[in-house]
Amino acid sequence: MRLMKIIAAALLLGCLTGPGRAADEVTVVITIKNHRFEPARPKAPAGVPLLLRITNADSTPEEFESKSLRVERVIAGGSTSVIKVRPLSSGSYTFFGEFNDATAQGTLVIE
Q1: Each residue of 38-54: pLDDT tens digit?
Q2: Please, are residues 108 and 95 in contact by the beta-carbon 8 Å criterion?
Q3: Are 59 and 78 in contact (CB under 8 A)?
Q4: What is the CATH number of the domain that holds 58?
Q5: Distance from C-alpha of 49 to C-alpha of 70, rounded to nearest angstrom
């Protein structure tokens, strides 16, 4: 009976501290200013969920898009949007601004 209690306690602890907790997420802050991403090459660790916190400091909307991240989001001028991204492997993941793709270019570097 004691062994069953220990196993149940271990399972409960695993549920409370397992993957997916907000504390395990890493926030990457990106600003759109003058139709450019700042920083243009943000970095984040591999293997953890990400929150992309994108603030559009311009007065016009911009669409944050990345085929490799599987993300597409319109961000109104003067607003902030948060995008959840699955854990990624090491590598480079490009993104761009659909409405200003000549200048709004960036790469998320996962190390």
Answers
A1: 999 999 999 999 999 99
A2: yes
A3: yes
A4: 2.60.40.420
A5: 14
How distant, in Å, are the alpha carbons of 57, 81, 101, 106 from that of 77?
6, 11, 16, 19
Identify how many contiguous H helices and E strands the chain contains and give both numbers: 1, 9
Is there a domain that residue 17 lies in? no
Task: Name the residue among 86, 26, 29 with its Cα closest to residue 53.
Answer: 29
Q: What is the pLDDT of residues 10-31, one digit of tens each?
A: 555 555 555 545 558 999 999 9
Confidence (pLDDT) at 102? 94
Mean pLDDT of 70-85: 97
The whole-angstrom separation of Cα 59 and Cα 78 is 6
Of 108, 110, 111, give the one whose Cα is nearest residue 42.
Answer: 108
